[in-house]
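not sure who needs this but someone in the group chat was asking about EOG090X0AQE from Scapholeberis mucronata so here u go. i didnt clean anything up, its just raw.
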Amino acid sequence: MPLPNNNHIGNNIASSSDSFSAGGEQLLTGFNSNSEFKSATVAKIEHIRNWSISTYKCTKQIISEKLGKSSRTVDTELESQIELLRDVQRKYLNILRLSRALSSHFQHVVVTQQGLGEAFAELAQKSPELQSEFLCNAETQRSLSRHGEILMAALNFFVSSVNTLVNKTMDDTLLTVKRYEAARVEYDAYRSDLEMLLLSSSGQSSAIADAQRAHDEHKVEFEKLRADVSVKLRFLNENRVKVMHKQLLLFHNAVSAYFSGNQTALEATLKQFNIKMKTGNIAPSSWLEQ
C-alpha cells in the first residue's frame, strides 16, 4: 500500500491553518463591529436621556416663571435692545411690503405704456390724416416707458437691499437671540435646582456637587451667548444705518428725478449707486428727448 504524500499532508495543514486564521479575523471584526454598535447605541440613549431631563427642567422653569413661583435672570438693557430690534424689523417688513407693491404696480404701468406706444405707432402707419398726432403720442409713451424702466431698476435694487437687511441680516441676529433666550431658561432652571438643594437640609453632598457643576456649565454658555448677542446687536445697528442711508438716498433721488421728468438726473442716480440695467430692456432715446 503506498505511503501518503507528505506534500499533500502539508498542504492540508496549511489550508486548515489559513481557514482558522481567516475565521478568527472575521470573528474579531464582528466582535469589534458589535462593540462599536453597542457604544453608539449607549451614546444615543444617553443623549436622549440628557435631552429629556433638560427639556423637563426648562418646561418646569417656564411654567414656574409664568406662575410667579420662580425668578428669572433679567438683563434690562439687553432685553430692551432686543425688543427694539424686533420692533424695527416689523416696521421694516412693512416698508418692504409697500415697496414691493409699488414696484409691482409700477411695472404694470411701464408695460401698459410700452403697449400703448406700440399701438399708437401702428395706427400712425394706417391713419395718414392723424399720423403726426399718433407718432407724437407713441414717442411720448416710449419715452415714459424708458424712464419707467430706469426707475424700476432703482426700485428693485432698493427692494433687494431692504429684503437682505430684514430677512437675512436681522434674522441672523434674531437667531442668536433665540439661542440666548433658550440658554437663559436652561441656566435659570439649573440655578433653581441648585438653590433648592442648598436650601434643603436633606441635600446630599454628591447631588449638590453635580448640581453645581451643571449650573456652572450652563452659566458659561449663557454668558457667552449674552456677549454674542450684544456684539451682534451693535454691529447690526451700525450696518442698518449705513445700508438705509444709502438706500433712502437712492429712493429719493430716483423717484424725484422720474416724476420731475429729469432723465439726466435719473440716469446719474443709477451710475452713482452702480446699478446695472439689462441693455435689452433699454429703449433708444426718442426724438422728444433729443
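also Confidence is low (pLDDT under 50) at residues 280-290. if thats useful
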